[in-house]
Amino acid sequence: MLPDPLPMSVVDAHCHLDIADGEDGAWLSPAEAIKLAASVGVTRIVQVGCDLPGSAWAVEAATQYPNLIAGVSLHPNEAPKLKAAGELDSALADIERLAQVSDKVRVIGETGLDYFRTGEDGRAAQHESFAAHIELAKRLGKTLMIHDRDAHDDILRILDREGVPDRLVMHCFSGDTEFARECVNRGAFLSFAGVVTFKNATSLRDALAVTPLDRVLVETDAPYLTPSPHRGQPNASYLIPHTVRKMAGVLNISVPELCAALNDNANRAFGGAW
User: Quick one: fold of 10-269?
Assistant: First the structure.
């Protein structure tokens, strides 16, 4: 069942339409997912590639669908495998090429660090790849989108060392209030996923509560991180209204006010309307 439509349009700031369509048990084609999302007020989507095939797919999709923009990247968990194979430099060069194929490629990412799936032996490769993505975003004037899992301190350290790009998004923000403030102090937008609706996510809601309204985004990370009351099912952009309404309650503002802010913030975070 579709949630009640939002009163104003919002942007899904991070989605993987290709994964939802391509995995076993696929349930929505990209065209179907985009149409359902629009029917509930999610009228624009940021499609994110996590490896070379996914990044190429994101570029093609953004060219095909006017309400999509693309992100291109090597996910942090890809970096150690590419480094071990002697292919990291060439893969980064391919990402740079894809980033310049179309004006619809607005994002470099998701890049960053993931200490949950990658052990200490792979961290140096992740750091190298992250630094390269930061440099690329700055040089090309693109938005940097960060994946951060269990690596808050090193994310900030490498950002400070390399220099923060003009536009920075913390994808699926997962930190506490202190980390939220540190990110905002560096000019970041904090993007909140369906996790914020989970009963045990009190610290995440506390972080949202201290985030300035002009720095908040909403995302799905679909097909992952499905919001309540659909947790355990595949996620899709049309479920964002559940997350938005929960966020409005946490921020103690009306849903229309939050929608207006989310829409404006997305325009600023991703370099203008599309």
Answer: TIM Barrel (3.20.20)
Provide the pLDDT for residue 19. 87
In this prediction the pTM is 0.97
CA 245 to the chain's CA centroid: 19
Pairing assessment for the beta strands 189-192 and 216-218 based on DSSP bridges:
parallel
Distance of CA 50 to the CA centre of its chain: 11
- Return the number of other C-beta atoms located less than 10 Å from residue 162's C-beta: 17
Q: Hey, CA dihedral for 22, 28, 29, 33, is it positive or negative?
A: negative
Q: In the Cβ-directed half-sphere of 94, how many Cα atoms lie within 13 Å?
A: 17
DSSP string computed for 208-239: HHTS-GGGEEE---BTSSPPTTSTTSPP-GGG
4: helix, strand or coil: coil
pLDDT for the residue numbered 1: 85
Q: Where are the domains of the chain?
A: 10-269
